[in-house]
Amino acid sequence: MTATERDILQAIRQDANRGFGLLLNTYQEQIYWHIRRITVSHDDAQDALQETFVRVYAAIDRVDLEQSLTAWIYRIASNEALRQRQRNSRATISLDDIPGEAQAAVDQYIDYSDLEAIKLQRAILALPYKQQLTFNLRYYDELDYDTIARITESTPSAAKANYHQAKEKIINYMNSTL
């Protein structure tokens, strides 16, 4: 556990409101973007983010001081994002089904003019969930394989293998749709 993580937990134990505010200031943005890459939709990401921090707040006193606070929060966020995505899977419309001029109205936070970014997002979303999660954690969040293993409840070597498999699939997808 890093000094910052210990500082946050100590602050929470001394003054729950101040400490949790520190936790939110430290993690809220990065966790939002982690969830957003899984759910895609801003509204779904906001819902999952809120539920993540409700769960974190409810269980913060049970955090093991020997474990990574970051990994614990990411694991909760990943589970919430997956739950949100599963809840909406029946009601989700594919980006392919939306006419170009209507896409901007779907989500103001996505730049639909960046075709490479759209193609990359589609490649990532086509991956099996564990590869998708591992890829996002390593590529976007720049987490090490030990932390990714704690988040995905696997081993560092499995996390490394999932990342490399995901990377190869993404490269193949990007090259095949040129």
Give me some keywords for this one.
single chain; 9 helices; Arc Repressor Mutant, subunit A; Rna Polymerase Sigma Factor, Chain: A; 178 residues; mainly alpha
In brief:
The protein is an all-alpha fold and 178 residues long.
List segments where confidence is low: pLDDT < 50 over at least 5 consecutive residues.
90-95, 97-106
In CATH, the topology of the largest domain is named Rna Polymerase Sigma Factor, Chain: A
- Helical content stands at over 70%
Question: For the terminal residues, how far apart are their CA atoms?
Answer: 44 Å
Mean pLDDT: 85
Strand % is: under 5%
Q: Give a count of the beta strands, DSSP E runs of length 2 or more.
A: 0
Q: Summarize the helix and strand pattern as letters.
A: HHHHHHHHH
CATH homologous superfamily label of the largest domain: RNA polymerase sigma factor, region 2, helix turn helix motif
Number of domains: 2
Structural class, from helix and strand content?
Answer: mainly alpha
CA radius of gyration is 17 Å
- Please tally the helical runs, counting DSSP H or I stretches of 4 or more residues: 9
Biggest sheet: strands, sense, closure?
none
